[in-house]
């Protein structure tokens, strides 16, 4: 029995009735990659990320075959896109009890298939267990598919399966890839396309760090990602996905699955809810003209470990972002006209330039060079700090992390790692990757979804995951990492920590202002298990410090700089140039005023030092 496809007009009204009120607020009027980024912000916020082992039972809610199994609505059989025969009787059927690790032939059992191969993201969470592209399939076909991309197979095939899906050499029009692909049957090509396009939106901001087609050997590059955050896929492959999406419309099966996964993960596949968004995002054309150069690049704030850059936007209307170069090497990109570059080295000279890029990925020429030398020291933390550790009853597991770096931090390059013991040795499992942005003087919580604290809920947490990193027992060693470098640690590596980390809530002492990679219990206050007061909030002393932060304005300045905040006790104000030369000094500068004169300075970048606090400013 064929699946029921809703007429186009009815699809829209029916689907929208399933979407929670306000879920897609902010998308109206957007198109192109601006729409894609807004949808990313929506579907990546407040997710619940389950453990890979949880998926087996969840398939009883998301993947039962109520659509092809002769109209049976209370079936226990799984819907397997790799073996389903839509117009006839399936060669074999599975329930969730038939899960196996491997198979020598079709029909022996099923296992969990990553539609975007897990080698793409190195098997890291949250990608590893995302229900929108991890589905139940026949174990043998899954095995043979390996990490080959989906695609159009040529006439000579290596394998043809019972429902006529096949593996053969790629015949994707316009693609330089000639290796093997797995081609699903027409019935599910739209399902596949919408799952992969979901992946491209959900994990925007991380795609460039994944394993992708780097064109060093196109014939053997199995991954169709191209390293871009916006377009996401190789152009020829993207064309194929759009074709599959358009030729195989959204089905009732996809609608029901979208709603079922939402109940579990609290996010949605936007291209099932709004199929027209696929073409609205990726249907744009480029003009083949390089964009105009970004102008007036300046360093607006300088510190020991970071520098903030700002520039005037390119005048080209099709610009979608800017690439930032440090000493000639590409280090970051942004859609904004300012960015903070962190993890710098104190007392070090840097040169920055910026290039604009458009929707065809053409680059402008370099901006002007902005030079700076980081300070030897400052008042900020050099990185994020683990501030609370809760190891309580059953699944009551939580971590709080605080940002005292002096700037907003993009979490995409941060990850949690945990060490387990196998009986013979200690080992790290694949990490859990953080995401989103944390503001300066903001604390956020990572919580196990099965936690049941009396004083804190899942809705309050920024990140919710049942990944191995949030199943610690008290004996484990935990690390917060930036890329592959340890930032902060809980416990001691390669030994049991149960004597100090079991059944306890540890709160970092407020006098600790820097992360450390060597754990010291004397830095922590200890409370009973399940204690979680003030979780996710700054301490009173942190609030006081934040309230007392000084603000300088205007910046750039012409005649004078005003200082806002509690200035009455400042003893000395000094102006220093970037070489360290003292230009101006004044004792008790705010006894009868709240400004510092700068009209005597020549144009350029300077540092205003107010006792032990330093602020960079520009003299116009």
Summary, kept brief:
This protein has 620 residues and is an alpha+beta fold.
Class by SSE composition: alpha+beta
| Share of residues in helices | 10-25%
Main pleated-sheet profile:
7 strands, mixed
The overall pLDDT average reads: 92
Sequence-ordered SSE layout with sheet pairings:
Layout: H1 8-16, H2 32-43, E1 48-49, H3 55-62, E2 110-114, E3 134-138, H4 139-145, E4 153-160, E5 166-170, E6 180-183, H5 189-202, H6 235-247, H7 252-265, H8 270-273, H9 277-282, E7 295-302, E8 307-312, E9 319-326, E10 329-334, E11 338-341, E12 349-358, E13 370-373, E14 385-391, E15 397-403, E16 409-410, E17 414-421, E18 426-428, E19 432-433, E20 437-438, E21 442-447, E22 463-465, E23 477-482, E24 485-490, H10 498-501, E25 504-508, E26 524-528, H11 540-547, E27 551-553, E28 560-564, E29 572-577, E30 582-587, E31 595-597, E32 604-610, E33 613-619
Parallel strand pairs: 1-22, 21-22
Antiparallel strand pairs: 2-3, 4-5, 5-6, 7-8, 8-11, 9-10, 9-12, 12-13, 14-15, 14-25, 15-21, 16-20, 17-18, 17-19, 17-23, 23-24, 25-26, 27-28, 28-31, 29-30, 29-32, 32-33
Can you walk me through this structure?
The longest helix has 14 residues, at 189-202. 41% of the residues are buried. The model is unreliable at 1-17 and 543-547 (pLDDT under 50). Strands 1-22-21-15-14-25-26 form a seven-stranded mixed beta sheet, with no helix packed on it. Helix content is 16%, strand content 28%. It is built from eleven helices and 33 strands. By secondary structure, the protein is α+β, with helices and mostly antiparallel strands. The chain is globular. β14 and β15 (397-403) form a beta hairpin. The protein has four domains: 8-282, no CATH class; 295-373, Sandwich (Immunoglobulin-like); 385-536, Lamin Tail domain (Immunoglobulin-like, Sandwich); 550-619, Immunoglobulin-like (Sandwich).
């Amino acid at each position: 029995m064929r699946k029921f496809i809703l007429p186009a007009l009815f699809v829209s009204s029916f689907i929208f009735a399933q979407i929670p009120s306000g879920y897609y607020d902010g998308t109206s009027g957007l198109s192109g990659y601006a729409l894609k980024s807004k949808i990313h912000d929506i579907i990546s916020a407040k997710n619940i990320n389950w453990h890979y082992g949880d998926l087996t039972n969840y398939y009883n809610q998301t993947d039962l075959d109520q659509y092809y199994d002769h109209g049976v609505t209370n079936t226990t059989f799984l819907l397997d896109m790799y073996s389903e025969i839509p117009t006839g009787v399936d060669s074999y059927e599975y329930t969730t009890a038939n899960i196996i690790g491997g198979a020598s032939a079709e029909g022996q059992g099923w296992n969990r298939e990553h539609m975007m191969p897990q080698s793409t993201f190195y098997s890291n969470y949250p990608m590893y267990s995302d229900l929108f592209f991890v589905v139940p399939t026949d174990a043998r076909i899954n095995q043979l598919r390996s990490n080959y991309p989906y695609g159009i197979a040529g006439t000579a095939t290596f394998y043809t399966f019972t429902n006529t899906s096949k593996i053969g050499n790629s015949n994707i029009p316009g693609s330089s890839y000639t290796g093997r692909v797995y081609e699903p049957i027409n019935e599910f090509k739209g399902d596949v396309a919408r799952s992969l396009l979901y992946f491209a939106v959900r994990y925007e901001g991380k795609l460039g760090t994944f394993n992708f087609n780097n064109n060093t050997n196109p014939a053997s590059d199995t991954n169709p990602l191209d390293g871009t955050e916006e377009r996401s896929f190789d152009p020829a492959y993207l064309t194929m996905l759009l074709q599959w999406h358009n030729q195989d419309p959204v089905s009732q099966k996809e609608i029901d699955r979208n709603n079922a996964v939402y109940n579990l993960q609290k996010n949605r596949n936007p291209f099932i809810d709004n199929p027209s968004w696929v073409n609205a995002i990726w249907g744009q054309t480029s003009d083949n003209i390089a964009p105009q150069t970004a102008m007036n690049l300046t360093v607006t704030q300088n510190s020991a470990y970071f520098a903030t850059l700002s520039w005037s936007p390119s005048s080209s209307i099709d610009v979608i972002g800017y690439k930032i170069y440090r000493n000639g090497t590409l280090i970051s990109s942004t859609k904004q006209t300012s960015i903070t570059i962190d993890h710098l080295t104190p007392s070090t000279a840097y040169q920055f330039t910026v290039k604009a890029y458009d929707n065809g990925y053409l680059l402008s020429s370099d901006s002007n060079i902005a030079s700076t030398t980081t300070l030897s020291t400052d008042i900020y933390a050099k990185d994020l700090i683990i501030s609370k550790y809760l190891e309580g009853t059953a699944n009551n597991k939580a971590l709080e992390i605080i940002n005292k770096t002096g700037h907003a931090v993009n979490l995409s390059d941060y990850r949690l790692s945990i060490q387990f013991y196998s009986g013979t040795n200690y080992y790290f499992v694949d990490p859990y990757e953080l995401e989103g942005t944390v503001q300066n003087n903001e604390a956020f919580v990572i919580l196990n979804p099965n936690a049941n604290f009396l004083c804190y809920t899942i809705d309050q947490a920024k990140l919710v995951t049942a990944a191995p990193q949030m199943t610690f027992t008290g004996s484990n060693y935990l690390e917060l990492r930036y890329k592959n470098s340890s930032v902060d640690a809980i416990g001691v590596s390669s030994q049991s920590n149960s004597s100090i980390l079991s059944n306890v809530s540890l709160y970092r002492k407020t006098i600790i202002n820097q992360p450390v990679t060597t754990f010291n219990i004397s830095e922590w206050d200890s409370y009973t298990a399940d204690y979680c007061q003030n979780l996710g909030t700054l301490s009173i002393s942190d609030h006081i410090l934040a309230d007392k932060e000084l603000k300088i304005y205007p910046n750039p300045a012409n005649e004078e700089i005003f200082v806002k905040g509690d200035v009455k006790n400042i003893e000395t104000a000094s102006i220093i140039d970037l070489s360290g030369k003292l230009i101006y000094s004044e004792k008790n500068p705010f006894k009868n005023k709240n400004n510092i004169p700068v009209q005597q300075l020549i144009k350029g970048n300077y540092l205003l030092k107010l006792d032990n606090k330093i602020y960079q400013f520009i003299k116009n």
